[in-house]
Structure formats: structure tokens, C-alpha cells
Design goal:
- By secondary structure, this protein is an all-beta fold.
- Helix content is 0%, strand content 42%.
- It is built from no helices and 15 strands.
- The chain has a 5-stranded antiparallel β-sheet with strand order 5-4-3-2-9, with no helix packed on it.
- Residues 120-160 have low confidence and may be disordered.
């Protein structure tokens, strides 16, 4: 993706319930890049997650990934394949039967998004994060917001 401003509150991905969003991937002026979760669909619900303090690049293509491990209730945020922060939630994630909003509130370009839902695993996992393809003028950059897990007979699941 490519943003033209870093000082606003921007949403890359979220899903809206009646009162809250179960999760949000984006940026806030106060905390930089964020990957947050809400404890319930209630007006006074607790919000926890990664408040990275990392400012997003401006006028440059970048790759942003949020990975949630339901087994450990851990949220991890990656910027260009490098971990920008991690947080363990005190509550489980919850599901909302509503559309997923992509690029709902942001200043810039979001030409492609890749999402994957995978079943949770109970063994330890090792994560590898792919970087987006090199962006050329007029060409879409890739953003991956997911964990795709594959179990191999020789070891633990590998996520990328």
C-alpha cells in the first residue's frame, strides 16, 4: 500500500458490529501503526492489541501484515516483513456477521489485499513473512494481512 499522510487515524481493514469492531488494522496519529481488538460488541468494550509507535512510510510502497494467533490470543503486526509489535490479549476474539471493510478510511492507495483464514493449531508455529513485490509506477503493490499455516510431517506448522 502507499499512504500520502501518516498523521491521521486510518483504517486498512475492519469489520463493524453494532457498536464495535472485532479488529482493526491501520494507523492512529497517537500510536502509529496499530492492530487492535475489541473485547465485545458493546459501547464500553475494552480495546487491546498492538500500538506500535511506528510511523508508516509516506509516499512509498509498503507491506503491512497483522497476524492473530487464537490459541495464544496473540496479535502481531509486521511492517515490510519486520515485526513492529506484538501483544497478548486478555480476551478471546469474537465473530461478527458483517462485511469486511477494506480501505474504509485512509489517505493513499490500497491496490490489493490478500486475506486467509486458517484453523488454529495447538503446536508452536514459526512465521515467515513475504515482502510485497517491487512496486513500479502504475503497478499494484501487494499487501498480505493474514497467516497461512501449513503443517509438515517433519515439524511444526509454518506461517507466512
Amino acid at each position: 500500500m502507499r499512504w500520502s499522510d501518516k498523521d491521521g487515524d486510518y483504517t486498512v481493514l475492519e469489520q463493524k458490529g453494532a457498536h464495535q469492531t472485532p479488529f482493526k488494522l491501520g494507523n492512529t496519529a497517537e500510536h502509529g501503526l496499530v492492530f487492535t481488538f475489541t473485547g465485545a460488541d458493546a459501547t464500553n468494550a475494552t480495546v487491546e492489541g498492538v500500538l506500535s509507535g511506528v510511523e508508516p512510510p509516506v509516499d512509498a510502497w509498503f507491506h503491512l501484515a497483522g497476524v492473530y494467533d487464537a490459541a495464544t490470543r496473540t496479535a502481531t503486526l509486521y511492517l515490510n516483513g519486520v515485526q513492529a509489535g506484538t501483544a497478548q490479549l486478555s480476551f478471546p476474539s469474537w465473530n461478527v456477521q458483517a462485511p469486511l471493510w477494506i480501505g474504509a478510511a485512509m489517505a493513499g492507495s490500497l491496490p490489493r489485499v490478500r486475506l486467509q483464514l486458517v484453523p488454529s493449531v495447538t503446536t508452536a508455529s514459526t512465521c515467515k513473512h513475504a515482502r510485497s513485490a517491487e512496486a513500479k509506477p502504475g503497478m499494484a503493490s501487494m499487501m498480505r494481512v493474514s497467516a497461512s499455516c501449513r503443517t509438515t510431517p517433519a515439524g511444526p506448522p509454518t506461517c507466512k
